[in-house]
Specification:
152 residues, alpha+beta, Jelly Rolls, four-stranded antiparallel β-sheet
């Protein structure tokens, strides 16, 4: 599948023109990972956002004081992860592991920032969509927290 077609499916790129999607594709890179391979780890630093072109990725959190992890999300084609790197330069909040063989599109934050400077409409659209995505995830987390408190 063409990278531009995958990028068109990504929530934070909704509303972009074909030309804008092609600009994103030009600054992106593709990487392949094997089943079980870790893409990045919790508390590591990074400067890339990731989009699944093929395969599935599990987002996992370490459990304080325990050797195992909890899968908090399973992602598939067209979904983005590591997107917090676009908002801050802090360490990763979770670990990303390939559930099966994957092809991943990566976009470097600094390259994306330059593209935003060249096309402010693209930058506005992406950041507005990112804010909506993060708000949805925060609301979902709030509901999960409430549910876990009610079960205690």
């Amino acid at each position: 599948m063409d990278s531009t077609k995958v990028l068109k499916k990504v929530e934070i790129f909704h509303g972009l023109s074909l030309t804008q999607l092609e600009s994103l594709a030009q600054i992106s890179e593709e990487k392949k990972y094997r089943r079980g391979e870790t893409i990045f780890t919790e508390r590591s630093t990074g400067d890339e956002v990731y989009i699944i072109k093929k395969g599935k990725v599990c987002i996992e959190l370490g459990l304080k004081g325990k050797p195992n992890t909890a899968t908090i999300q399973r992602l598939s084609v067209g979904q983005i992860f590591g997107e917090l790197v676009l908002v801050d330069r802090r360490s990763r909040s979770a670990t990303a592991v390939c559930e099966n063989d994957c092809e991943i599109i990566t976009i470097n934050r600094d390259k994306l920032d330059k593209l935003f400077e060249q096309d402010s409409r693209l930058g506005y659209t992406v950041m507005r969509n990112l804010a909506q995505l993060l708000a949805e995830r925060l609301r979902r987390t709030d509901l999960m927290l409430v549910a876990s408190v009610l079960w205690e």
